[in-house]
Write a structure and sequence with these properties.
Length: 46
């Protein structure tokens, strides 16, 4: 079970917005964001 996802990319703004919206449908929310990257986590029970 994936409990966190980290992304780091040169095109971060667009991808972070995309992943924020897509992952929200799976119960995964953005936990932290920094220049060029973000971390997403879920608290869903397995």
């Amino acid at each position: 079970m994936i409990d966190h996802i980290g992304i780091r990319t040169a095109n971060a703004d667009k991808l972070i917005l995309f992943y924020t919206n897509v992952l929200a449908t799976l119960g995964i929310e953005k936990k932290a964001e920094n220049p060029g990257g973000a971390c997403f986590v879920t608290t869903a029970k397995v």
